Amino acid sequence: MTETRKRLGILISGRGSNMKAIVEACESGELPATVERVISNRQDAPGIDWARDRGLECRVLPHRDFESREAHDRAVVGDLKEAGIQWVCLAGYMRLLSPWFVETFPQRILNIHPSLLPAFPGLNAQRQAWDYGVGWTGCTVHLVDAELDHGPIVGQQAVPVKPCASVEELQGMILEQEHRLYVRALRRLLSQEWRVEGRRIVFR
Ligand code: GAR
Hints:
The protein is α/β, with parallel strands linked by helices. The chain has 6 helices and 9 strands. The longest helix is centred in the last third of the chain and has 25 residues, at 167-191.
């Protein structure tokens, strides 16, 4: 199969374990893509040190240095465009994108969220699920639109809550699945034909 490798940009705010999963899948050939930029909105994000050590092109663009969300987004997008980025993966990037950002990469921005959306959007989704007392939670990969944790769903993985003795254990179980799901979902989008119909992604 002759696949053209897509140029990925990854945005992070913290640990960056989902970023690592994507980088490793690109390096192993599991994903038909290369990571050409990692951008963090936080100077102290541990993930950025890992990415630098790995020899990836990294930028830190602290959102506090900009007067508005859109001004920050324009700097991020400017950098992504300069690197010829075709797909943007949010990997623990804790910022809502402006509508302008979303329109700049139509249907080419992905996010991972640690719940079965539309349940428990927003911060601390695993804690929200734990406190609610659900029997199952999990993770979701979705295309990004201008609403928080909202766009069409690419893939989901359920995780049972019952075997977990604490919310920390649940977070760990979900995170393990996140790494697999993100790579699986991205691989499907990059290597198959698909279209968006309403809220549904239809694969051919
Ligand atoms: C992950 O659990 C991810 O799903 C979550 O942040 C964590 C980042 O971990 N994202 C969100 O909650 C987005 N709404 P990581 O930095 O190790 O990938």
